[in-house]
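notes to self, project folder thing:

trying the whole complex as one job this time. last attempt i did each chain seperately and stitching them together was a nightmare. two parts in total, labels are on each line so i dont mix them up again. if this works i'll redo the older ones the same way
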Amino acid sequence: MLPTVINVGWTYRRAGVDLNAHHEMHNYAIDSIRRLARELNIEVSEGAFTRFLSLNNMQLTLHVDGVGTKSMIALATHRFKVLGWDCVIGNTNDVACDNAKPLAVVDYVALRDNDVDAVRGVIDGIIDASSKVNAMLLGGETAIMPDLVNGIDVACAVLGIRVGPTGNVKTSDVVIGVSSNGLHMNGYSLARRVLLGKYRLNDQVCGEELSNLLLKPTADYSGLILDLYDSRLIKRAVHVTGGAFTKLRRVLGPGQGLSLEMPEPPCIFQEIQSVGGVDWGEMYRVFNMGVGLVLITDPNNVDDVVKAVRRWNLNPWVLGMVTEDYQGVLSLNLWNGLRVKI
Amino acid sequence: MLPTVINVGWTYRRAGVDLNAHHEMHNYAIDSIRRLARELNIEVSEGAFTRFLSLNNMQLTLHVDGVGTKSMIALATHRFKVLGWDCVIGNTNDVACDNAKPLAVVDYVALRDNDVDAVRGVIDGIIDASSKVNAMLLGGETAIMPDLVNGIDVACAVLGIRVGPTGNVKTSDVVIGVSSNGLHMNGYSLARRVLLGKYRLNDQVCGEELSNLLLKPTADYSGLILDLYDSRLIKRAVHVTGGAFTKLRRVLGPGQGLSLEMPEPPCIFQEIQSVGGVDWGEMYRVFNMGVGLVLITDPNNVDDVVKAVRRWNLNPWVLGMVTEDYQGVLSLNLWNGLRVKI
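result (full assembly):
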């Protein structure tokens, strides 16, 4: 348990994560990548979430992501498998959004102790997830660093191959949300600060043990997304992860905005908001709020997309449409009557 | 500075890194990978250091490695560029040893603070190294995790493509060592414990400021290695990293051993050994001891290999030959008259 007294008005920044600084780091990386591409004279094609390298008429992508401080909940409860699962699925969901099929995975585990059981658990989860998405685990690195890591950190890199194009989003295209399975792997620095200031991990919260709520595995969307692209039913897919709904901007054209009716979020998100006094706009910048994937489709395909989502045992919501009004500002009408712009 | 009093007999294990536990983790991963390959019915070909996936008649590999606690020296002196450089080169050296050319890189940086300068420095080093080895940086992830990381952790994954075969090692093949540039990125948990118990980072050690000695960039061997494979001058290359000279076993056939005359290691390694009272065998299991790369060649090619190494401004040593005597035991005759088996 953290010894923090909870005040009203928690933000991601107060919890230690400054999204502006993160944005600055990201921009520096993007500029550096472009400079390198010019210098090496390598043609790199940009997806919305990944970059592709041409090789013998194939478009290959590499993508990397880590499970964040969800690992601290896993360590406290000695349940490591979900970290391996999330590490793979968090990446393959992203790669699929650019219409690329995952081919191979490598993992990186940094840990404080010589904890063989923890590493076995992580590997078990990686194998389950790799098997599910049909990607081959090609190797990994385990670094034992007692002075550097307070627990366990898990990241994965995924190799993907582009299987087809994505579409251009037009005004009046329809935006469909797909249910998540808990927090997935984002916002844990804030969620932990807020929730563990009030609760213990074995307390009942929202009718369930808190540790269970916080360790739900990330939903696997890659099969659904690739199917929908393959049958030309969607133009774009957005995995709601770091930056949450602000990521939607990456698929919008110039001058386009979104006006969305957001469904009531699952109890755990409402609990974080109310216990932490977190601004609702901040909530939608940090968490998936029950909507882990967003699909953008031509109005004629809405019914087919909704049916496809249900066939994958996920819940769809028609959230709204692409507008010309907001010039990159996303306007979210919440189920409780509030309206936030992010 | 660490407040530790240095006793005689430091080992990697006492410094927090248990190579037996690490070995157990590694074996579990290998078994899991083999099980997954059978389950997915994917043919994976095993290099000595990486695994290859077949895709349209190409053999692709993914490899991951991190810079370890060298980052703690970088953080203390605010010199981050070397971390990005090492992160790429540590991987590309390994990939080249399996005769694969690096194509693309992604990085993963986990850090305690919203330290934009640190991340910029790391990215600068990644770009320099990627440019040097002609690999494209395709993306990365920066995770700010104040509760999980005491400083900065940097790992990279590299995509490589196999460009040719490696050879089978025979009895009487010759073993050639190639000079390293300092500790590269291995053994820092032990080196820091030992050296920082006696010295400060700005003390003069071995005629140089200690921080400079500990932050020398990893030597880039990939161009040399790929040239030597291409001209059929070597059968195998071994990058001396985690596990140090024990890695040589991976390229030996059944029943083969090595008997090598090791050159005098640079002063910094002798300093670590004497200050820490570290067993000499342990030194050769943990550190590169001045020999960052080992090449194995037919006796007829020794002169050409030695010349090629010199052309790359690196120092070669003819260390000895492959024997039938040792059955996997490596016998090292040290310059000081001692003999160690590892």
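what i see at first glance: The domain at 174-341 of chain B is CATH 3.90.650.10 (Phosphoribosyl-aminoimidazole Synthetase; Chain A, domain 2).
need to look closer tmrw
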